[in-house]
Structure formats: C-alpha cells, structure tokens
Amino acid sequence: MILGRVIGEIHGTIKHEFYANRRLLVIEKTSPSGEATGDYLIAVDSVGAGADEKVLVLDEGNGARQVLDSPDGPVRSVVVGIIDDVVTY
Amino acid sequence: MILGRVIGEIHGTIKHEFYANRRLLVIEKTSPSGEATGDYLIAVDSVGAGADEKVLVLDEGNGARQVLDSPDGPVRSVVVGIIDDVVTY
Amino acid sequence: MILGRVIGEIHGTIKHEFYANRRLLVIEKTSPSGEATGDYLIAVDSVGAGADEKVLVLDEGNGARQVLDSPDGPVRSVVVGIIDDVVTY
Amino acid sequence: MILGRVIGEIHGTIKHEFYANRRLLVIEKTSPSGEATGDYLIAVDSVGAGADEKVLVLDEGNGARQVLDSPDGPVRSVVVGIIDDVVTY
Amino acid sequence: MILGRVIGEIHGTIKHEFYANRRLLVIEKTSPSGEATGDYLIAVDSVGAGADEKVLVLDEGNGARQVLDSPDGPVRSVVVGIIDDVVTY
Question: Which CATH superfamily is domain D1-48 in?
C-alpha cells in the first residue's frame, strides 16, 4: 500500500458500467512526509476523500474488489483511508 | 489504473486464439495532464478507443478477464474508458 | 519479498474497518546490508515489529490475506518476520 | 502486456519439473518501434518464437497458466504472439 | 521470471511459521549475461541453490505457493531452477 494526495478527478462518457456511479480520483504518490514523488495513479474512492487530502491507497485488484463489494469489478486501485497523521520514529 | 494515449496497434499472424478478433492497442502512458512519460504498454480494447484518444487503462489480469468476459483469457491490460476531462484541483 | 526498516506508523479516523485494530507501519525499503533505497511502502504488522527493526515484508495480496486470517481484507503488504541477521557469502 | 525480442534461451539441469519440456526464452524488452529498453525478462514460449523475433509477452501468472494449460504451473511470463507489424498513428 | 545470483541468507527468530524450515535466500538480480543490476529480492529456496549459483526466480505468489505445496503460504518469490547456461543468439 502507498500514501498519496488527491489532486483531481477524471471524467468520461464512454466507460465500463462499473465506473458509472463511482469517483475516479487522480492520486499523486507521496513520500511518508508528504512530498510528491513525481508519480501518480488513478484510484476509485471508497471513503469520501476530498481535494488535497492525504490518503492510503491499496493497489491490488482482489482486495480492491472486496472493498467495493464487486467480485468482478474492473479495478486495481482504491482509496481505503484518509490519513490524519504519519508518525515517524 | 493509469492514464494513456492510443498511439498504435499491433498485428501478428501467429498468436494465441484469444486475440483473434480483438484490437491490441499500443498505449503511451501519460501524466494526468497528458504528457508522455516515456513508457508504454499493450492493452486490449474494450471501448472502441481510436487514434490519439486519452484512455483509462486497467493493468490487472483478473479484472481484465472480467471486462472481456473471458475467465481464462491471456490478458493483463485492457482499455476500460475514454477520458473526456481530467479535472485537477 | 523485500527487506525494510520500520520508520513510522500512520493514523487515520476515516478508513476501511479492516484496519481498525491493526498497526499500519511505514517501512523504508533497504538493501540486504541495511542501507535505505529511497523507497518505502505501508504494511500491516503481523509480528509485533517495533521502531527501527529490520523486517521481512511480503508484498502480495493473497498471501497477505492468509497471514492476517482475512480472506477478503483490503491488504497487499504485511510484515511477516523480524530479521536478526543477513548473512552474505 | 509488453513487446520484446527473443535474444536467447536458458538451460538448467536442476529445475522444477514444469519446465522439463518447455523453452525458457530470454526476452529483451523493446519500445513499440523495437529499440531495446535495457530491461529483460524470462518467459516460457507458447508460439514457437525463434531467435530475434519480435514478440508479445503476457506478464501475469493466472493468464500464463491458462495459456500453458497448467492450472498450477510456476510461471508468470509467457510469449503469446509473434509480431508482424506495429502500426503507429 | 528473472535471473539472479544467490548472495546470502536471512535469519530471524520471530517470523511466520511458514518460514520455519525453509531457507530464505538473498538474490541479487542479474542481466542475462550475469552482471548485477543493483536490485535484489528475498526468495524461498525450492531447488537446493547454493552460494553464488545463478538461479531462475519466479516472482508471483500463486505459482510460488504451488511450488512450495502450500496453498496459503505467505510467499511471493521462489527459486525454481539453477541455471547452467544462458545462450544468447
């Protein structure tokens, strides 16, 4: 799993029906302290994450389908938590 | 999932029968704002994506097989949407 | 599987219920001799790993779910061992 | 899926029985236009690919096992097609 | 699948019981001709690989569990062959 920041959303008329009522978020990957790594991914929201929030992203299909209650959904990445705090020792 | 742009197609006479009537697209990976990242992948079309269109690509085998209705298809990557707009906050 | 060092924990109020009573560790990836590689991942603890300990991390969803006894848990990475010694020939 | 070029084969006496009668090819990864990317992978042949041929490689275990008709084979990568032509728009 | 060289072993008292009687090898990833790439992984032995031997590594959980006869083992990477020769064309 990785940490990221919600920087946008994608919209499209032609898409698999699975995405019809789901938000597709653009997630900037970050270091534990919050700096952008220069990479990103697209993830389905499951926690109501808003603009600029730090989030935990699961990047694995079978777990993502369970979170979204869709045993055959075309999904690999899902936002599974909003991060309040990263404590580093 | 990632964003990309359709830049080509591949053709081959000798291939697994699964690919017989499917388009195999060359997808240039892009940043959220559409710049090429320098990387690419080959993905099966599922939405009728045309030349130069921005697309959403699922890069995970079990989900890809579901999209293509082929429980045992040799596939990992599939184009699952055409992107109209990427809104960044 | 990879080697890493426990450098922190993440906390969040809004998250999937699976994470309710589990520690989410920030793992700095290391070389076999223990130098940081500059990359990290977030992993669920399964062995009681503490601050600064060298650990073995499994980064694969199906195995991670088995370790955590949760056939449908949203998890990909889990700490599966604490490293006492890395012998290089 | 990715494109590559067959640059060699590996041989070994001690190996899992699954590999007994299968060719293990060394595949140089290439760009869509055929330049080497500097990376490679080892893939099982399924189409009779020969030296220097451009090939399509599936790098995903569940699909690879289906192609090779081996539900429990220790395999992740398989050559699934020989490329005649890559058309770029 | 990738090629590597056995450069060490890891030892730990606290670990998942699956690893109790298995050797956890440190594998330096190599190019087809045997040069170190600078990267490594930890893999369970299944062929009796010794110090400095060139090996074939399967880096995929479901196949790795089959090789080790453990349908629910926490494992992703397993050494599946010892390489005698890499023939490049």
Answer: EutN/Ccml (2.40.50.220)
Is any Cβ of chain E less than 8 angstroms from the Cβ of C56? yes
The DSSP code sequence of B23-38 is -EEEEEEE-TTS-EEE
Which of E6, E11, E15 is the mutation pick for testing C, counting most C CBs within 10 A? E15
Backbone angles phi and psi of D22, in degrees to 5: -120, 145
CATH for A2-82, options being 3.90.550.10, 2.40.50.220, 3.30.70.240, 3.40.50.970: 2.40.50.220
Is C66's Cβ below 8 Å from some Cβ in E?
yes
| ipTM of the complex, rounded to two decimals | 0.94
Residues 4-33 of A with CB under 8 A from C: 31-32
How confident is the model over A28-51, as pLDDT tens digits?
Answer: 999 999 999 999 999 999 999 999
3-state SS track over B60-88: CHHHHHHHCCCCCCCCCEEEEEECCEEEE
Model pTM score: 0.95
- The structural domains of chain E, with segments of one domain joined by +, span 2-82
Q: B59 at the A interface (CB within 8 A)?
A: yes
